[in-house]
């Protein structure tokens, strides 16, 4: 059975000093984590869907340090407010992947047993500034700039894993045995020597944001904004023949309205947004990815348009009604390195739908919907609270609706439309020191897909079923 026990330890230290004209804030963070994940992959063998061609054990150990210094201007009658700062990030990760081919009797299939030890590291520094100028009492313009410079490195080894029926003494030259090592790949049917990947990278980028805000009285606020963001480039820490990817860019434009009406008993918000993604980082199983593996590549470009609305109303004392609605149109503009698959038979094993792929065809997915981007989603719910001498009691109910959702890039796995209803009942003591609650999630026991994966087989992982629970809190 797949498993993934994880331990995470986080420490944060925050300090502030008031200089009069501005406040200096220091935020120091440290995080350490380790996880051991077991999973299975590859096509079923011997006609049995229960036995894939490979089992994998993945160990990850991570240590991260961060430091941010921020100087924020003091609130005053001045028309100009500002903030400047600097941020440092240092991450060191160990990634160990053991891949073991499946053997049944004297027949072994799938991957040669190997151990890949990857050690990616990142050092990143940035400086930023943000200024807001009030032209009039109700009109504000904000301009922000951020410069980021990152150094990334990758070391590691790929070695045979001894002790199994199909273990080997040495790996063939089609494998890159360490980052930067040459290897042989099949190019147009011809074995060709390939150069090793770079072991050190540097990325730098100037990003920005601009915001125009207009207040109409005290209760209605209009805004329009545009910004450029980026997601850092990365290595595939356990596949040393995979070239690193460049940063992913996001150009985002949004305009909307925020209101607080009827003496703040009614809140209505709405917005329209347009996102353009470039150099989208995606995993592709198309060649030159080795069978059963995926390359992390800059392949796709993506466009997203959407309308988002939410409300919150207090019609009676103690009763709050809230809701959200989103209409999303997300499409790949270009995705030339992708594939489409034809599914074979499948069955449910230990609650997980497992099946085979009988055909894989290279395909440009331009016009397809990206995974996990439903066209419609909405929620409606309420919270009712009642104060007594024994404390405050509360009851809440929420209904979350999601339309059909693709769980794979080629839309071959579709999560049907569904409603998820959650309920909870809570009590807080009169002293507010103790609280307790009982809850149920997915009251209707809707069968949903939490994730889908297509490679040389396909797997659909179900979402959480109907779940009951309770919590108890003590506040000091």
Describe this structure in words.
- With 476 residues, the protein is mainly β.
- The chain has strands spanning 6-18, 22-45, 48-73, 80-104, 107-109, 114-136, 139-160, 183-187, 190-194, 200-216, 220-231, 248-261, 266-284, 295-316, 319-334, 338-349, 352-363, 376-388, 391-402, 405-406, 414-415, 418-428, 434-441, 449-454, 457-462, 467-474.
- It has an 18-stranded antiparallel β-sheet that branches.
- Residues 43-50 have low confidence and may be disordered.
Computed over alpha carbons, the radius of gyration is 27 Å
Structural class: mainly beta
Count of beta strands = 26
How is the biggest beta sheet arranged? Answer: 18 strands, antiparallel
Report the portion of residues in β strands.
over 45%
Query: What is the mean pLDDT?
Result: 87
Give me some keywords for this one.
476 residues, mainly beta, 18-stranded antiparallel sheet, four-stranded antiparallel sheet, 26 strands, globular
How would you briefly describe this protein structure?
The chain is an all-beta fold.
Layout of helices and strands:
Elements: E1 6-18, E2 22-45, E3 48-73, E4 80-104, E5 107-109, E6 114-136, E7 139-160, E8 183-187, E9 190-194, E10 200-216, E11 220-231, E12 248-261, E13 266-284, E14 295-316, E15 319-334, E16 338-349, E17 352-363, E18 376-388, E19 391-402, E20 405-406, E21 414-415, E22 418-428, E23 434-441, E24 449-454, E25 457-462, E26 467-474
